[in-house]
């Protein structure tokens, strides 16, 4: 009788051994997927820092197949679109950004209809779906492309799309939270904290500022007034994101009779990068787990002020209107906390398997060396297989600055000077032959990455 019982225990043990081995084999692809998304884009980055956008674009085109395989079509189209616009290929840029936008929309539609179990898998095993800040600013840069092409009505459509997306942010994050809470409840893990940080961001001052300029040029005075009021609302309601004064150009009166207004827009720096963060937590008195989740980390820019001088005119100082970096970090905090919660739930599910193995092994006095090794592998795999999804687009700027100059209609050379905190000029950029027309939307845009 005892012999039969022992044999039964051994049979059970080997069944569990086989099951764990199969799980390990299934785990291996996930492990490798977590390490395979990196692509070295330092060459394109170097050309951008040097202001050689044509070289940057050509270099990224050569790397596009590798980037597509590692990080997916949303990132490839977005990155190429951003570099194409810097290279003044505005129509090509919009084609690329529109494709990225379509893929982001499809990915979100799939995510809200996906079953709960598929939602909780490691994000590295899924196609990249884009981040909310990437989606919001995509339309803004499409709008700037349309303005460069002289298509103001299309530009206003894009700005309105960006604002619509901003209004849906809280709804989207609540949907994500609900999926995590439902999964935790179904798995009997209701005690896991599934609350996340609420994003402070809801209104982009930059998007509304541009919308007010375009609407005014199109003769849509009520739309222009509303958008201008929204700029003020963005500063008043989101002080943690707008830690600087409202630009004086927001409240400017109309230019004097016979004068034309030249609007100045400049971008500086580079947007934050995703980094992997690790934490340990206890899943039982005898077992702990290491989880990984992504966070956005800002990149320092030397540019602390921008001055502009038009031919024969006094110098104008631009004022910051938006930190794209701050908005990105704020909107991503909710996603980061959700990724952390999902990692905890996955770790707890893995821990259950390890606990079963330990229980059986303790009952078996004849654990083989291979089985001991398997137990060790499972503990190592629990740590190694968990990798954060650090995929993201690469070429968004960090800060946006605005200003204006009232001029007689004509053609001017513009000199942009980018200064550091001590007032030293880091770089000077000259834009020759800028035409300023009466009763038209005159907008000049520059970018300096370092």
Automatic annotation (TrEMBL):
Record's keyword terms, sorted: Coiled coil
Coiled coil region boundaries: 159-186
Keyword Coiled coil: yes
Protein's UniProt name: Lipoprotein
Biological classification of the source: Bacteria, Pseudomonadati, Spirochaetota, Spirochaetia, Spirochaetales
